Amino acid sequence: MIYESIMGYRGSKSVALQQQNATVKEQRVDGSRCVKTRHLRCTLMGFERNYPVKIPSKQIINKRLYSSVVERSLNNKYSLNPWFITGFIDAEGSFMVIVRKNPKNRTGWLVVVIFSIALHERDMRILEDLQAYFDGAGSIRKNGKVTFKLRIESLELISNLIIPHFDKYPLVTQKLADYLLFKTVVEMMKAKEHLTDAGIKKIVAIKASMNNGLSAELYAAFPNLNPVTRPLVEDKKVPHEQWIAGFTSGEGCYKVIVAKTPNTKVGFRVLLGFQITQHTRDEKLMTSLITYFGCGIIEKDPRGPSLYYSVYKFSENYEKIIPFFKKHKIVGIKSEDL
After folding, report:
1. 85-221 CATH choice from 3.90.550.10, 3.10.28.10, 3.40.50.300, 3.90.1150.10
2. What is the rounded distance in angstroms from the CA atom of residue 57 to the CA atom of residue 5?
3. Is the pLDDT score of 4 beyond 70?
4. pLDDT tens per residue across span 308-321
5. What are the beta bridge partners of residue 98?
6. What single string gives the DSSP state of each residue in 196-230?
């Protein structure tokens, strides 16, 4: 896939733009709306410079959702604010180390490092902009019924694009620990340590402390393994306004709550609700949002290890939350909810 703007202008062309599917966390699927496939087909007569919209497919892209976050660069390519990228990856990104059997290798094992983001098809544009930010690295492929995934698994691209970004604009949530372990494996692979028996054992010990740990197959293959100590991430705070915009684009939620209330004249009460969801392991970061925004509360989910930064007061939403996100735009379908 390639941006038409990168390909350059032609005297005439016929374009069919099909909105595609994408990948998402469970909470992003809730309340989903059906978006029908749209097509645009046309033939331009004469020189394209005479037309107000030079790239036909962009006639159906809602640029309003990206106006302050996505900036037009000199080479005609979209680029996202670096801190927005980090905030969005803190919410939706994944750093993985895959270790699987491969009899062709001397050690009997193959190691693959993967950086990926999975979103709903409605947020396909975000995946495209993320891929453009990382110089077109990786591929965007269907990953479910209504989801797509941007996946980068080239060791060279991860070393030259992904690692430098997150070293300069570090993650804030506990995902930082996964990234640091991921980076260690990348450095080991660059040094060819993954091609030795000792290196494989060390990588499996690192993987044991990442994400969901080891599979049953790896536990059986390495029974006496001692997982490495997971890096300690504490006292992290919001580093930049654009980090909040990116994080909220992934984990935020805007609600209008209508509840029956017999004590009112109309019998109902209307509340505005703004929430950011996160795992309980990031409780300190979530609590710091109360100070950052100057409002809100922390609520814990009794059904699981999740908590919410929530703002329900009308005055706080109207005077603080809405003005903040008017200035520091979120992107994707959630901007329409806002």
Report:
1. 3.10.28.10
2. 10
3. no
4. 999 999 999 999 99
5. 112
6. SHHHHHHHHHHHTTSTT---HHHHHHSTT--PPPP
